[in-house]
Design goal:
The model is unreliable at 122-128, 475-493 and 529-570 (pLDDT under 50). This protein has 660 residues and is mainly alpha-helical. α6 (84-92) packs antiparallel against α18 (380-396). It has 30 helices and nine strands. The chain has two domains: 42-119 and 135-182 and 196-202 and 210-283 and 304-471, no CATH class; 474-484 and 499-522 and 573-659, STAS domain (Transcription Regulator spoIIAA, 2-Layer Sandwich). The chain starts with a helix and ends with a helix.
Length: 660
């Protein structure tokens, strides 16, 4: 009893020790909406968010209908999937410009479970066997039950990964692997839509090499292609591509882009209705769209063991694609994203909506790019789109009965243009690092031969194995002999000219394993205001060493670079010299991080110079980034870099004195 009382008293003391500030900090960390809503600028941000929200709602509706069909469920469930997950992510997500909702890759993965457990028995989306729920058949309710179960279990897996703090392991997901996986998955999606584009009656084909079996079936049954559906599909694709290209070309001159998807849906639906294409030409149409929101109902738990594979695919593929977009928007608009918090946000965006008959969700590249182009500022744009989607669900939905399925398939294919255009990255990877190029190609091949989750797993394993074999060949320990006499100057003016020069030596290979850590710690050095000894301790943890700067005629460790940001009285811009003499090899991620460091420092008005760079590194950086600078940034040695700084500053002082 004594031991039990002691344990209870210890727990009670811990509970009493929790302060209100601790609870507040936890809520702000886990509910990002509490951070940006109180400081939301209604005057400056409401109008662009409203415009973006209206444009986003149009795309959410069209993609929701299309991706629901891709997921082998009734189109109305795509509307629900464009409503509920958006609200959840706006509360828990950190990406201000991330548009979550239905997603092609997760829809394709969940379709495997739907077709396996509830195989298609009829081509009609609605039959006479009414289940009493939303006016849909029992067959359709069984199908959405499986898709909702995939969403529920996938969300549970993502929440579990959040609790295990696995967000920090995302450094294993390199850009070539993500690019290859998403491109391969997009190829799968296009292939799955061929039956609608061609108007063919085709059985569901999946499994290993299913990608090739589909095209083999098409060529074997080429005579069964419906000419009317093919012509309408081609016309829709041409119109969509042409108008989208014009929107991109003139987006700087026009504030609102032309909603071509909406106009195409209206035009084809009206034409199909008046020409009676469903019966005259046999075109497959969407059919009845139920009105209103469904009552919450838990997904069928008895099928969870049957959908474990698809749930893991949804959890990993959806998170990887969404995180890449969140990190891209954070980099573009200068804010931070917590990888682990994104696990929680997307997990809850799958778990909670699964009770409202929603298919698996994730962020989509096309919708996020739309928010960029229309000038969205915050997640308010996504919430405004939810209001408009609600109007569609309650009022406009039934009018979509006559929408041809081949038009929806065309919208899906054109919407994947951004992912398919990632084939152009192959030239970039070839010029920067041919090993990354080989990883991209092999990951893409594995993805189209098997599945997106298999390709992702292969890419991660392949990258780790290659790095393990490359690291032993690199020099990890070296005795560096720095000739300090090279930096001794006789006059006081020379000493003053080098006060703001700081030197950082990169002593390890720069690859995906340590690139992000290097970037983070270097930015910390720039931001923090601490003593020189404290700075050196922090940097030594990640394999970088602070060299020295010349101050007052003697050599010492450098001061915190963050102090430079507050020294606005000095006319000279601070300079950061990166010594790359020990940077033995790098990959595409490492080059991207160096370019990001260069741009971050440029935004902070700090000049970055690189010394002792190998020719391959110089070529990769010049190819991978737009290094616009009036002065050269690559130097043969540290001494040549400091000489150039001194000459430039002496010339600047001379020019100022001449003007005076």
């Amino acid at each position: 009893m004594t031991g039990a009382k002691r344990k209870r008293s210890a727990v009670w003391r811990k509970i009493q020790a929790v302060r209100f500030e601790d609870i507040k900090a936890w809520c702000l960390r886990r509910l990002p909406i509490l951070q940006w809503v109180p400081v939301y600028n209604w005057k400056e941000n409401l109008i662009p968010d409203t415009v973006s929200g209206m444009m986003l709602a149009i795309q959410q509706v069209t993609q929701g209908l299309a991706f629901a069909v891709l997921s082998s469920v009734h189109p109305v469930f795509g509307l629900y999937g464009s409503f509920f997950p958006v609200i959840i992510y706006a509360i828990f997500g950190m990406g201000r410009h991330v548009a979550t909702g239905t997603f092609a890759l997760t829809s394709l993965i969940s379709a495997n479970a739907v077709e396996r457990l509830v195989p298609s028995v009829s081509t009609n989306l609605t039959t006479n066997n009414n289940s009493g729920v939303l006016g849909l058949s029992e067959f359709e309710m069984q199908r959405i039950g499986v898709a909702a179960a995939v969403s529920f279990l996938g969300g549970i897996i993502q929440v579990a990964m959040f609790m295990l703090q696995l967000g920090s392991a995302t450094f294993l997901l390199t850009e070539p692997v993500i690019s290859a996986m998403t491109t391969g998955a997009a190829s799968h999606v296009v292939t799955s839509q061929m039956k609608y584009l061609l108007g063919m009656k085709m059985p569901y084909i999946s499994g290993p090499l299913g990608f090739f079996h589909i095209y083999a079936y098409i060529f074997e049954n080429i005579r069964s292609v419906q000419l009317e559906a093919l012509l309408l599909s081609l016309l829709s694709i041409v119109v969509l591509v042409l108008v989208k290209e014009l929107n991109e070309k003139f987006q700087r001159n026009i504030k609102v882009v032309l909603p071509i998807e909406l106009l195409l849906i209206i035009a084809t639906s009206v034409a199909c209705y008046y020409a009676d294409m469903e019966y005259v030409y046999g075109l497959e149409v969407v059919g009845h769209i139920p009105e209103g929101l469904p009552s919450p109902k838990p997904p069928p738990m008895n099928v969870l063991p049957e959908v474990v594979t698809e749930a893991f695919g949804v959890a990993l593929v959806g998170y990887v694609a969404s995180l890449a977009l969140a990190q891209g928007s954070a980099k573009k608009f200068n804010y931070t994203v917590d990888d682990n918090q994104e696990f929680l946000a997307h997990g809850l965006s799958n778990v909670i909506p699964s009770f409202f008959f929603c298919i698996p969700s994730a962020a989509a590249m096309g919708r996020t790019a739309l928010l960029y182009s229309t000038g969205a500022k915050t997640q308010v744009a996504c919430l405004i789109s939810c209001v408009l989607i609600l109007v569609v669900i309650y009022a406009i939905g039934p009018m979509l009965y006559w929408l041809p399925m081949c038009v929806l398939a065309s919208i899906i294919v054109v919407g994947l243009k951004g992912m398919l255009m990632q084939f152009r990255d192959l030239k970039k990877y070839w010029n920067v690092d041919k090993i990354d190029w080989s990883i991209w190609v092999s990951t893409y091949v594995f993805t189209i031969c098997f599945a997106a989750n298999v390709g992702l797993l292969y890419g991660v394993i392949c990258t780790i194995v290659i790095v393990i074999f490359r690291f032993p060949r690199a020099k990890t320990l070296s005795l560096k002999n720095v000739k300090e006499e090279e930096y001794k100057y006789k006059t006081e003016d020379n000493c003053e000219s080098l006060k703001q020069v700081k030197i950082v030596s990169v002593n390890n290979p720069l690859v995906f394993l340590n690139a992000r850590k290097l970037h983070t710690d270097l930015i910390k050095i720039i931001q923090q205001d601490s003593t020189s000894s404290h700075t050196c301790e922090d940097v030594n943890k990640v394999g970088c060493t602070i060299c020295f700067s010349h101050q007052g005629g003697s050599f010492s460790f450098i001061k915190c670079v963050g102090e430079l940001l507050t020294q606005s009285s000095h006319s000279e811009r601070p300079v950061l010299i990166l010594d790359c003499s020990e940077l033995n090899f790098f990959d595409y991620t490492g080059v991207s991080v160096l370019l990001q460091i260069y741009m971050d420092c440029k935004n902070r008005h700090i000049d970055v110079l690189l010394a002792h760079c190998k020719d391959s590194l110089i070529k990769a950086m010049q190819y991978g980034g737009n290094l616009e600078s009036e002065n050269p940034i690559f130097f043969e040695s540290i001494s040549s870099a400091t000489d150039a700084i001194q000459i430039h500053r002496s010339y600047s002082k001379f020019s100022e004195q001449s003007e005076v």
